Every structure is written in C-alpha cells, then in structure tokens.
User: Fold this.
Amino acid sequence: MAKIKLGIFDFTDCEGCQVELVGLKEKLLVLSEKVEIVNWRLGQEKAELEQFDVALIEGTPLVQEEIDLLKTIREKSKLVVGLGSCATLGGIPGIMDKKERQKWYEKIYGPDYKGRGIDALPLSAYIKVDFLIHGCPVNGAELVRIFSDLINNKKLNYKDFSVCFPCKVANIPCRLLENKPCLGPITQGTCGAICLKGGSPCYGCFGVKDGANVGALLTILKNFASEEEIENYFSMFHNKSKLYDK
Amino acid sequence: MINNEFIAKIEGHGTLNIDLARKKAELKVLEGERLFEGILVGRPAKDAPWITARICGVCPIAHNLASLKAVEAAFGITPNKTTILLRKLMVASQIIQSHTLHLFFLALPDYLGLDSGLELAKKNPAAFKAALSLKEISDEISYAVAGRAVHPTTTAIGGFHKIPDKKSLKDLANKLENNFDSALSAVNVFRKLDYPGYNIELEFISQTDRKKYPGYDSTEIISGKNNYSSVKNYKEDISEEVRKNSTAKFAKYKKREVMVGALARLATHYKYLAPVSRKYVKELNFKNPFYNNFAQAVEILHFYQKAREIIKVLLKEELDSKIISPSNHPPLKGIGAVEAPRGGLYHEIHLDGKGKIIFVNIVTPTVQNLTSIEKSGQAILDQSPKISQDEAQKLIEMLIRAYDPCITCAVH
Assistant:
C-alpha cells in the first residue's frame, strides 16, 4: 500500500502544537516511517504542494496569503485536519476583535504602519475542515490515538465525555461547587483535565463537546459570577466561536 | 505565496532575499500580528502570564515567568524561596528544551547534509538518542514543576497553584543522574562541527546580577566587559524600530547592533559556568555567530548541572507552598526580566486600582538579534567575494538558523 502523503502547515500562532508533535519522540519516528511527510516547513526543506492525503494545519489564517494557501491546501487534500485551538477555534489570537485591530496597529507600530493581519478566525471560517484536534496545546496521547486511526484508515472520531470525567477520576474538588467559574462541563475531555490538575481553571480550549448544554452552564455561572467574569472565561479561546448570545 | 519561500527550520515565518550584485541580504518578517499587547488590555492581571505564555510554544515558560515577575512587581509581591527555586528549575528545563529542539531538529541537519532532524535516527543514532533523552528529561521537569511541557498550568501570581511533591523531585533527580551522558554528548556533537569560518565583530549583551550565570533574577544588563545599565531602563536602552514591510520590529541597544542568547551569555558570564561546562569555553570563537550552536550545547550541559543542584536543595528543604498576596499599596507598574533561551526578555505591565491591565509592553530577544543577523549577514557577503547565489542563500539561511530566531516571539 502506498504511504499516506502528509503535509504539516503552520499559520499564525505560537507553534506549540508542533512542539507537542515533536515531543512524541520515538512515536513521531514511527509515524514518519508509516507516512510520507511531503511538506513541513518547521521540520524540513522538502516542500511539495502537489497533493495531500492528509493536511494537518496549525494556527489561524490571519494574513491574506495564509487564507489563499488554506484554500489551495483544501483543493489539494483529501482530508484537512485542524491542529490546536488557533486552527480549530481562533484561540488566543481570536481574543482580538477585528474592529479593534487598526487601533492596536497604531498603538503598537505607530500611525504609518500598514497591518497585514485581517482577523484571527478558525480554519472553518474559510474552508470545510474534516476533523479538529483541539487544545492549547494539543495533547500528545490524543495525537497518538488520532494518528493511529489515520494510519489504519479508520474514520476519525471524537470521544464522548467532558473534562468533568478525567477531573473526577483525578479526585479534584469541583470548581463550580466552590463558586469558581469553569468551562469543564461543556468541554471535550481528551485533555485529561490537565489544567485543573495543575490548579488552573478550564477555559474550554478542547472545544465544545457534542450535545453540551451551554445554557445550563451559563445559568449555574450566573448564580455566583459577574457577567464580566463569565465573558472573561468564554472569550479566552471561544471569542470567535460565538458560544452564546452576549 | 509559495510555501517554500519561507525559510525552513526556523520558528516562525520569514523570507530571505539576496541581491548578490549589490551584495545585500534582506530578511523579511511576514508573520501575522497577533497584537498580544492589545489582547491583554482590559483583562484581569491573572490573564497576563496565562496568555503571554502562548506568544511562543518553544519558550512558553520564559514568557510565563517574565510576565509573572512583571505582575508581581506591580502588585508589590515578593515570592517565597521555594517559588524562586522552582522557577529557576523551570528556567533550566526551558533552556534545555528549547536548545535541544533547535540544535538537533533545526540546526544539525545543515551540518550533516540532511533535510530533516528525523533522518538523524538512521544517520547519527547516537546524536538522535541524546536529543530524545534531553527532550524527555526537560519535558519531565517542566511537567513535574510547570504542569505541562508546553504552556504552564501550575504557576500563579505570588507562587504556585500546586508544587511538586518530594517523590517526584526524587524521581527527577534519579533521571538526571542516569542520563548525564546525553548532556555530555550534546557538547561532543556540537564541538566537532565544521562551522563556516568568518570573523565578525560582535557586541554581546546579557541580563546579569553580577553574581551568577544569568537566568531568572537579573536587575541589570551587561554589555561588553563591564558596562552596566539597569533593567528599569530597558525601554530607553533597547530601542525598537518599525520597518516598512516587516511585522517584527528591529531593536538596537544604545543604538548599537548587539547579539543576545547563548553565545552572548557565555561571552559575558563564562566564569560563572558550572565547572563541567566551563572547560569548553576556550574552544568557542566569539567572533563567529555560527558558534552560537556550540554555545547552546555548552549551556545545555550547564543548565543540566544547575537542574541537578536546584533539585538537591529542594530535596533538603521544607517546601513552602504558600501563595503571597498583593501588598497594601502596590505600585501597579512592574517590569519582569528573564533570560529566555534566545536572550533577554522584558515584560512590562501597568494595572489599574482593580487589578485590570491598562498597558503592556514586551521586548523579545529575537527583536534584538534581528539587527545583528542583518549585520552578520552583510559581513559574510562582504567576506565572500566568489560566492554563488545558491551558496549565499544556503549560508545566510544557516547563519539565520544559528541565531535561533523566534519569529513568532518577535512579532507577538
């Protein structure tokens, strides 16, 4: 059987998800033997732009050239997979509202500067994306699960549990019961509740779980948190994914 | 945009145009602007370290710590001894992590005629094994102390949400003990490389406390042999220039092109290196920026040794997990300086009376190095009368890689 042709692309972002990818170490080596990496700017000079079985895209298509390349990649790829919250949700760069950009170009770069960025949006704002590997950064074990499905020609699937599941398994006191905001109940749990284990809140970077009841969580949050505080949580990674009507 | 116009194997997006007839090399930075200094304004102070870590996936710990220091200065907080030791351990793991990734995955292929770091597995299995071992150990330290290899989860304003227990520190100590060879072999790989021979006048600066090898707690900047300036004046001394067609600014220190990072730290602080790494200093050429690769390997060995020493102290002491609260009359303005893997990093933050962010300024090491890269690139072209277009392209790309620029940091 011919090797899967894989392209790995990075748009505007921190490249931390690729660092997680490299962090797979021996497993990445196994992957590189099972697939042919035909394009990976961070990893190699070789850069084909012919055809991809799978295109893995990290980052937000912020500048026009990235938006154009994204559309080209879509045309040339059987499967387009978003890697990390910038690609899947708009993520941290998405906190910046489009209408605010000009003001900040002037403050940061001065009045004569002509900004390149248009708006930090998820890939899905421009093209059809076949699968989303969420996370800021993505989780190594989850990468292994998805890659092994890819190599074995299986249909990629999301896991059907929220962050609460691994959080309870780890016996971490529930933040909501302590009147502290948390987006764990509506968020996909394949992160393993890693932020909560470290003592940080969940801001929902692993994306909304299928069938999550966002309205019910909002009702609970409104019992103890101010609107500003709720907005602070929902804007961290989801500013561009419009989870609820403000 | 054709994808391969971008320089491969560097962090972020830049292009290199060489006009050989005019002997000019131009580095263009085209990374999209995320506008972090704007993103933060209006948000609570707690968001600053969390969000700024995400400026860079290769040095998130450096940004997280610089931001924590800035916020703590603004709140009038002095963290306890355990916190400081754990943060210094984070600096050590960050530098090992970042240097390992850069050296083996991005830089070494140039010298061995390979296209990708993954090819090392077959072509130089010993180097590959050392790289994996160093990556694993530094990831494990970051995991145990910071909660994760990329983007910390445990760090907090005034301390840690969660500190590692003695057992996990003991495990780290054993792991470091058993894998010391990997740090030694990193130095052995990079001291034997055939670096392009150039002679370039380089001026180095580094953060310093005049007592130790730089990392977490510097208050001054040293330039040359013994000129000092206060970190408090970072904004005046490190002036940033906005250029047409570049999303990154280009900085100079007191109007001069300076190099920051491993080679600069070694040049200014070699006498404070751990003895095991100090003996390699005489093999370094401080007038050749390609030796930054070798310098990074020497630093891996130094910080490996530092990590062992810090853990030893932590194992002896009683660990204090208390988070320090803001003082009663905080100054509400603070600067946080840390030596990141690529050089001096500065975060400044201003808060209002409710702890909301009203101003942020971030100066990254790569912004300082960009002007030095340009100067060195020019010197190389001037010193190479017979070079062809292809050779020039390859050589200057190697030079850029040797500086280990982080374009995503530079633009932020």
In short: Chain B touches chain A through 60 residues (CB under 8 Å). Residues 276 and 302 of chain B are 7 Å apart (CA to CA).
